[in-house]
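S.,

Sequence below, as promised.
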Amino acid sequence: MAKMSEKLVGDMKEAIRNGDSEAAKRAADLAVSEGIDLTAAIKELSAVMAEIGERFSRLEIFLTDLMMSGEAMKTITDVFAPVLRERKLSIARIGKIVIGTVRGDIHDIGKTLTAASLDAAAFEVHDLGVDVTPIAFIEKARDVGADMIGLSALMTTTMPYQHETIRLLEEMKLRSKYRVVVGGGPTTREWAREIGADEYGKDCTEAVRICKKIMEVR
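The prediction came back faster than expected:
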């Protein structure tokens, strides 16, 4: 990586760790204007967010710290997104995924990070945002011809909507059409098995690996 790229990526990493959205935007804007490899940058920044998430799970930082870092990361991905979308015309997409945070849940840090990571990994990503109903996931998946549905839940009280989405797919005779991946802070591999999900991703890096694996066998 060129020296300028290293500096800009370093500046964005520092902004994320400090939860400084303004500094994050300045560095992201410059990264775009300098034409650095945004895919490589997102991979490195995703690792920083995973590190911050681990620190939070060890109670080394507060929830507000995690949220501020997440906002800084979202600021960067918002700057990168239009450029990455333009490049889609020249990038072969390896699969389509509909992703969102389930009904009743308005947390989007992990979901947004995962969506950005999947986009950077050459997936066609349809991000429905937060508070998404089971039927909205399914209708969007049908509309775009998705291969996968990604269900994020950041609260224990909203986890049942992951299960509800899978149940609705079964009722509509569509379960075999889509691979369902679940994730989010309170979710576990055991929970994924219990509700009949196909895969569980503990973080954005694992989610990308899982989705690539799914497309290899489809």
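The chain has two domains: 3-90, 96-217.

Coffee later?
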